[in-house]
Design a protein that fits this description.
Layout (H helix, E strand, L loop, with lengths): L1 H19 L23 E3 L14 E7 L11 E9 L10 E5 L3 E5 H11 L9 E9 L6 E2 L5
Antiparallel strand pairs: 1-2, 2-5, 3-4, 3-6, 6-7
């Protein structure tokens, strides 16, 4: 009796196993993911060559940055740009010196914003310094990143 129960249980498990593995005809086919064309590196430009914001300029726009379209395969609203500011020849290693822009080809900075970035780098107030700026463009999810030219 014990052997018959073991034989029936093994037969039942084998039948269930093979019946469960033979349902490939019920699966829906999934469309392949789209492949987008590569973009290009944007070209960064500034409205002025040098700027010296004073206390009176704290709420005024002192500089405008603009860049070319990186020609991603999606709408401009799905593109993210990160403007990074650092001391000249420092390889952009400064922390918290980035401004993120989504879906636009330009941004502005007030005197207060620019001075805050410069103080984060460690610059002294009232001392003339040279800075480098670079723009990183990508899709909104940070895929396909491109670096712009460096402006000083």
């Amino acid at each position: 009796m014990k052997n018959i129960l073991k034989l029936l249980a093994a037969s039942f498990i084998t039948i269930v196993f093979f019946a469960a593995c033979n349902k490939t005809d019920n699966l829906k086919k999934v469309e392949s993911l789209p492949v987008y064309a590569d973009g290009i590196s944007p070209v960064l430009s500034s409205s002025v060559a040098s700027v010296a914001p004073t206390l009176a300029d704290s709420n005024n726009v002192v500089i405008t940055f603009s860049w070319t379209d990186p020609k991603y395969a999606t709408d401009l609203s799905h593109t993210k740009y990160i403007l990074t500011i650092d001391s000249t020849n420092k390889s952009f290693g400064a922390i918290n010196n980035t401004k993120t822009v989504v879906g636009a080809l330009s941004t502005t900075m007030t005197g207060r914003e620019l001075n805050a970035y410069l103080l984060n780098i460690g610059f002294k107030i009232g001392v003339e310094q040279s800075i480098d700026l670079i723009l990183t463009s990508s899709y909104a999810n940070n895929n396909q990143r491109y670096l712009s030219n460096v402006i000083t």
